[in-house]
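thread from #wetlab-drylab

HS: before we spend reagent money on co-crystallization trials with iron/sulfur cluster, can we at least see a predicted complex? here's what I'd submit
DV: go for it
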Amino acid sequence: MRVHLTTLGCPKNQVDSELMLGMLSAAGFPVAERAEDAECVIVNTCAFIDRAREESVNTILELARLKDGGRCRSLIVTGCLTQRYGKEILAELPEVDAILGTSELDRIVELVRQAAGRHDWATSAPPGYLYDATTPRFLMSRVPYAYVKIAEGCDMGCTFCAIPQFRGRHRSRPLADIVAEVEALARRGIREAVLVSQDTLAWGKDRRGEGDIGDLLLALSDTAMPWIRPMYLHPAHVNDRLIEKLARARIVPYLDMPVQHADDGLLRAMRRAVTARRMKNVVAAFRAAIPDLTLRTTVLVGFPGETEAAFQALLDFVEEVRFERLGVFTYSPEEKTPALGMPGEVPREVAEERAAIVQDCQDRIAFERVKSLYGTVQQVLVDGPSEDPAFRWEGRLAGQAPEIDGVVYLRGRGIRPGRFARVRVTEVEGYELVGEASP
Ligand code: SF4
């Protein structure tokens, strides 16, 4: 029986998908490139916010059509949507043959074997699964980077966020196990390890005697992995000792630190455990400690109680801090979260208008910043064939995280996929660059 898996959602889900395919492949199930060629189709879903849930349900219904006269004999749904709404999925989507929650990942082989039986393996078990370096992993794309999940779950309790409901409490993988996985990925030709979890800076707090995230990054600095990129840093965890360790660690000069907002009243209502002034100081300290640092952040607009004045505080903050990269989301009311029902609801169209204003402001800042790269010689990791037919290859600078920060389109001789190349930046167009091979 050939299996095909469609991944939705965040890089943490991508890791889960590669583990499920790794276990299935090790159990003898061939992996089909296309869903049409598979007898068993799996959808690894996302349930983070309303739009993500919509996309998950639409994808399930779309793939379910493959059962009408196609090869597909069973449709399995996994991931956050099943962990959160398992019973509803089975009740409302008769096309689905079986579901598996985020905490039962290692039962995927058993489930595929019995898929025809309409099994419900989701709602019973609370989130608890954590993989290790011995778990077979099927790298789904031929790119030189891989996501490494260093922990699962979160204890921060931001009032707008439902993730802890389906990913559980924070639990860190052992340091030696993460080092072993990164070494193994380097031996498989991976050149960049992107460290992900819900709350990366909390790594180690639940593992007595293993140190903190700074110690993990210093340990990973001794591996053969050329690029190490930590993502999802919560500013509330930052202190001088951590900054000192991050500055000593051999990580790419890139940090992803969601600030969410900059109005102190809203930050309290969001339970972000940090103030705007503190975040400005953290940014300044990181920039002082790590040369050529690229800072990415995420902000949330339309949270209940966001007045014009509060929104202006956010805009002023973005103008002043001048992040290199920024993503903006509109608030999504989530079941069983403290923010649901808070007073001061912001109409959706107002929230979307504010998101557009933030994005315009950020684009202007980012385009000004990126201009300084013109004519410089940069190291690029060549990801592979270019999506733009005008170029053969594309890659990324250390300041560009995969899939979210744009690419460098590459020209010239001697450029090879999966390798580093030295290029001169010859064109700068918004978030995208053109680089010419340079000796
Ligand atoms: S840090 Fe906050 S937003 Fe992020 S996963 Fe945890 S609770 Fe959700």
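DV: The domain at 3-122 is CATH 3.40.50.12160 (Rossmann fold).
HS: ok that's useful, forwarding to the group
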